[in-house]
């Protein structure tokens, strides 16, 4: 497993942002992105549980990191988040994400958050497209995927 470099001022994982959640991402040999995290009162929604927007932001970042690690400079245009179980505050969750498919003009991703018992609490799917005006130019049809 290889630790990914942080993103400066990123809301989810940036070290220069004083309000960042402070996640540290790792890349597994499969290309899957992975992190463990404990949400606290700063991310509370329902009493004692994680706000849905906080978990959505983390899954967006995980899926986006998987795409960026594949060498593609894109942004999210669609996120689908499914809440299966409430995420309790103060318990370690495992976050993972991966690229599912690269198409000519978009990249499809998936991700999930698991509770300590291994059950899936939140799942996500994303569609990411090139955004050269935001992140620079890079072709999606690069055969090497980089």
Q: Would you give an account of this structure?
A:
The chain is α+β, with helices and mostly antiparallel strands. The chain has a single domain (2-135), classed as Roll (Thiol Ester Dehydrase, Chain A). Helices cover 15% and strands 34% of the residues. It is built from 2 helices and 7 strands; from the N terminus they run βββαββββα. A 7-stranded antiparallel β-sheet has the order 1-2-3-5-6-7-4. The longest helix is centred in the middle third of the chain and has 18 residues, at 52-69. Mean pLDDT is 84; it is low at 137-146.
Q: Judging by the overall fold, what is the CATH architecture? A: Roll
Total number of domains: 1
Global geometry? globular
Strand order of the largest sheet: 1-2-3-5-6-7-4
Helix content: 10-25%
How large a portion of the residues is in β-strands, by DSSP E? 25-35%
Annotation field: number of helices: 2
Give the SSE order as H and E letters.
EEEHEEEEH
CATH hierarchy, class: Alpha Beta
Count the E strands: 7
Mean of pLDDT:
84
Helix/strand class: alpha+beta
Largest sheet: 7 strands, antiparallel
Separation, N- and C-terminal Cα atoms = 19 Å
Q: Rg from C-alpha positions?
A: 15 Å
What is the CATH H-level superfamily? Answer: Hotdog Thioesterase
Low-confidence runs of at least 5 consecutive residues:
137-146
CATH topology: Thiol Ester Dehydrase, Chain A
